[in-house]
Amino acid sequence: MSTETITTISPTTNKPILTRQGPSDSDLTSIPQRAHKAFLKYRKTPLADRKKIVSKALELINDRQDDLAKEITEQMGRPIAYTAKEVTTAVARGEYLVKIAEKALEDTPGEPQEGFESVILKPSPQTPTIAEQVHKIFVEAGLDEDVIQYFHCGDFTKIEKMVQAPEISLVCFTGSVQGGLAVQKAAAGRVDCRVGLELGGKDPAYVRSDVDLAWAADEIVDGAVFNSGQSCCSIERVYVHASIHDDFVKEVQKVLAGYKLGDPNEKDTNVGPVISKAAKARIQDQIDDAVNKGAKNATPENKSFASPPKEGNYIPPALLTQVTHSMQIMRDETFGPIIPIQSVASDSEAIALMNDSNFGLTASIWTRDNAKGQELAQEVEAGTVFVNRADYPAPDLAWVGWKESGKGQTLSAFGFEQFSRLKSLHFKDYPTQ
């Protein structure tokens, strides 16, 4: 049986740049079988030795950050000015988890834990080489090649077959709500397969009246536009107290006027293309819907916004005001460089609007009054609530989604729970004569 050919299209040029072959039916059977066989041996490896392997792999990833950065820019369109930092940030999070692993996984009375099955990676068709690089690096660091495997696939029926393989005990998926529901459905016929999902977001920010406007504007624009808004925890809607609304909008305009939309391979580019033609069309549809329903496009003049590269999926950052929750831009995930700002009269109105969403990944509150910020954070329905920052998954805090943003958790000591299983050992002394 022939396998599928998966083609990666450059978001910068809309031309094919890579092809990979999907798995055969026999691959779908042999990959999990090899993984399970490798785990039966690897499970006997002491934690100290495992930590050494991971630490070595992280060192190699850090050493190769420039090569990995170029691949991310080529395949995703993220500006080269930022991609190396993405690699070093991943390394830093890994180093933190290695540091706390022994404490997080120590036996407790009545609840020893065993965990860390073999891993099978299924990368996005858009970034096929990153999984290949991770596999290569971990094997080089000393891990058995069957303990960490990968396969390329764009056919969900084959992915479904992999999920249903009896050797698979946990599936972690990052992507859309629709994709997450499909993965969950695929695993629904099995009692012994857990599912962790990191899905969509519509992350709100609330700017209180006591902030420094220029500082807050710079932070909000960065949180909304970084990576062309294509971050799971990017700011997607902004609520601003009415008393500072107009002045805050002017400050945001000043910040946006200094951004550069363009070729992600140029080091002075702030904003590159979005991932696909479909993404560009979806984002534009949300802008059009908002404007047709009364929103004002308040985007400042910017030469790079007016004349982006002719090829590629370039969509200029946009600032929208006079928006309401009747508009798609305030309800549906955008995943693009759009900043919709809505005026609010009070803290209570802001919190109510922030919680008026099917999503709950992150949220942020911006205020000089830290105590008030912490108080309001308790009322926000989201897995992570930031005060005076955004788009920053800290490794010592659990990364978790509420509502339709997902289930399960990663990062922090709590992150190990998803990847481990409890086992109770109950012993009674043998009777003496």
UniProtKB/TrEMBL annotation:
Regions of compositional bias (Low complexity) in chain numbering: 1-13
Signal sequence annotation: none
Catalytic reaction list: an aldehyde + NAD(+) + H2O = a carboxylate + NADH + 2 H(+)
Residue ranges with Polar residues bias: 21-30
Pfam families referenced in this protein's UniProt entry, alphabetically: Aldedh (PF00171)
Region (Disordered) residue spans: 1-30, 294-313
Superkingdom of the source species: Eukaryota
EC number, UniProt record: 1.2.1.3
Keywords: Oxidoreductase
UniProt xrefs under Gene3D superfamilies: Aldehyde Dehydrogenase, Chain A, domain 1 (3.40.605.10), Aldehyde Dehydrogenase, Chain A, domain 2 (3.40.309.10)
One GO MF term attached to the UniProt entry: aldehyde dehydrogenase (NAD+) activity
PANTHER family for this protein: ALDEHYDE DEHYDROGENASE-RELATED (PTHR11699)
Family according to the record: Belongs to the aldehyde dehydrogenase family.
Name under which the protein is recorded: aldehyde dehydrogenase (NAD(+))
Lineage of origin: Eukaryota, Fungi, Dikarya, Ascomycota, Pezizomycotina
